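Lab notebook page, bench 4
Experiment: in silico fold of construct C2
Operator: M.H.
Input chain length: 376 residues
Purpose: comparison with the prior construct
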Amino acid sequence: MESDDAIAAEKATDQVPEKATRRAARKATKKVARKVTKKAAKGSKSPPAKYPRHSIEKCIRIPKAILDQNAGKPCTVKESAKFLGVGDAGSYQVEVSSGIKYGFLDRPNPGQIAVTERAKKIIRPQDPQDEIAALQEAILSAPVIKDVYGHYRGENLPDTQFFHNALTDNFGVPADKVDEFQEVFLSSLRSAQLLVEHDGKMRVVDVSHDRSHGRTGDSPTLKKLEKSVKVTSGDSCFVMMPFAPPLGDYYTKIYKPAIEKAGLRPVRADTEIFATGKIIDQIWSGIYHAKVLVAELTSRNPNVFYELGLAHALQKPVVLISSNENDVPFDLKHIRVIYYDVTDPFWGSKLLDKVAENILSAIENPEEAVLRNHID
């Protein structure tokens, strides 16, 4: 079947009067062809990037030039470009935009840019912690970057292909810009000391509570998930974990309140569903009826792994948690795992928030929390 564009081109040729020259016919055909090409080019163009298109490190040079050569006073974009000896059009305008998105520059008046206090802490720190604190604040405020950071904090980043899929599907990064975003994201997190290499994986450091000791309310990530994920009063979350302390104590202190924070009903075999009859039948029922599950893998408890096997057989989304990466079996490491460090003074509150977020995230994006069906 001919396309509409081909038919239009044919009509343009057919409608030329018989006395017209071949040159006129070719001209009409080329006109349609140019229109088709222009239309195709317009359709393939991706939307403008919402994230900063430069890394944090690169975005410091403009505010530094303003501080060094203009005493930090507001100036025009053109004046700032002259301080650096570069042109003020094209890529330089994009760099200014990136600086604004990180909170290193602002616009006090139309046509002007000014250096922010955040940038000054990086360029001229007054305290040993000023620079890192300001860099981390920039990560936590930059569009899209803050969302991706919030999603993966406390976890290993997935392999490149799965990371790219998540960027496109879950965070709206245009497919033709995922490589650029990844480069900016990784470079910026390294500069802010928010990315560490661990057993060949890149782990995102969680500083959500470090930066706000007295904060109140839910995290931005959780608020966003609460709006997009629907749960009902009957939805349950089954917890698979050892019963003996100290791990067993985490249920009432962390996992139960985290599940309730996510809006689900927490269930654990020894307390909520233990009754007369075969315990394994009740465990099976609890797993089968759960909307999502939580598994504490620390210490490699055999009962936990047995229950986890049942959950995976039922293709249930499971939030995996461990304080030790060696306790996570190799064939489970491709699934999202929350890692926590009990030496961190804020580990309990960080883990509680992160579990609540990942429960809702597992419901919204089960492919990140379900064992892939290799049989299919």
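Observations: The longest strand covers residues 236-240. Residues 143-204 form one domain.
Next step: discuss at group meeting.
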